[in-house]
Write a structure and sequence with these properties.
The protein has ten helices and twelve strands. It is α/β, with parallel strands linked by helices.
């Protein structure tokens, strides 16, 4: 049976169902002669006549009768395996998804995303994982389903979709002397000490690079591991910070004021990234679409 192919399996099922070469041929859109040749191949492969003449019709052999239901089940199983993913009833799905995102993103957006998912698909649960590890392997292995944030460095093999464009704004505690001036300029901005979020414990960031193009620098006094920490430090000191504009909501308290930076700092896109192996998975596609629409409605 080394030369048995899937077309033979389909033909065998049709022959056993119809017990007629001509009817089976019409069912599969073949000529009667082509089906006769296929029957000959099946007889040789199985070592059994399968169908034999009986009056004006044909009857199945005992072996053919014995395997008929198995053949039909196998044919259906193969068609299922080789068909595109079927549509799903999303409210009936029971599945967990792991989303990799930084702490600030989780603090600001996790509750809203969870509510949107629960409203449409109560059987789907979200698990947020820290973004300290941005390797592609986790997406390849499906340990992480989606990576949300700035485009990963090793993004060549990933699929990415922009959720929204972001930019930096400054912030300081309410009542900070920097707000006494009519305008926040480069001069009074750089006159104060600063707190900086840096994933690599660097004392320079996008704001410093923009200031350097003007030939000036600021006095970074403190590095912290997250934007929420920038907000907390700025609220409790005279240090000035910078956060993404999308985090303004979390800084909207009586203790903090935000302001436009006095220097042009490049913006950046927040994307959702996934591995191509999940492209056509219907539930994964649904989740990506829901996340995209959720952020689209927020902008």
């Amino acid at each position: 049976m080394s030369d048995l192919d899937l077309n033979l399996l389909v033909a065998l099922d049709a022959l056993l169902r119809e017990r007629s070469v001509s009817v089976a041929a019409r069912r599969l859109g073949l000529s009667t002669s082509a089906m006769s040749r296929t029957l000959s191949r099946l007889r040789a492969a199985l070592g059994d006549p399968i169908l034999v003449p009986a009056g004006r019709g044909m009857v199945a052999t005992p072996h053919a009768l014995a395997i008929a239901e198995d053949v039909h089940s196998l044919k259906d199983a193969v068609e299922t395996v080789l068909s595109p993913p079927s549509s799903v009833e999303i409210r009936e799905v029971r599945r967990d998804f792991t989303i990799r995102a930084n702490e600030a993103f989780v603090l600001i957006f996790a509750a809203g995303l969870s509510a949107a998912v629960a409203n449409a698909a109560p059987g789907i649960r979200l698990r947020f994982a820290p973004r300290s590890d941005k390797d592609v392997q986790s997406l390849r292995d499906a340990a992480v389903d989606l990576d949300i944030g700035v485009l990963p460095t090793e993004s060549g093999e990933l699929r990415c979709q922009t959720l929204f464009a972001d930019r930096y704004v400054g912030l300081a505690r309410a009542g900070h002397p920097i707000f006494d001036a009519d305008e926040i300029t480069v001069e009074n901005y750089t006159a104060w000490g600063h707190v900086l979020f840096s994933p690599h414990a660097d004392f320079t960031g996008p704001v410093d690079r923009a200031l350097a193009e003007l030939g000036v620098c600021r006095d970074v006094r403190l590095i912290v591991p997250s934007f929420p920490a920038v907000i907390a430090v700025a609220a409790a000191s005279d240090l000035i910070g910078a956060i993404p504009n999308s985090y303004r909501q979390s800084a909207a308290t009586s203790q903090i004021r935000t302001f436009e930076l006095p220097v042009a700092v490049s913006g950046f896109d927040i994307v959702q990234a996934w591995h191509p192996r999940m492209d056509v998975d219907p539930v994964h596609r649904w989740l990506r679409a829901l996340i995209f629409e959720t952020f689209k409605s927020m902008n």
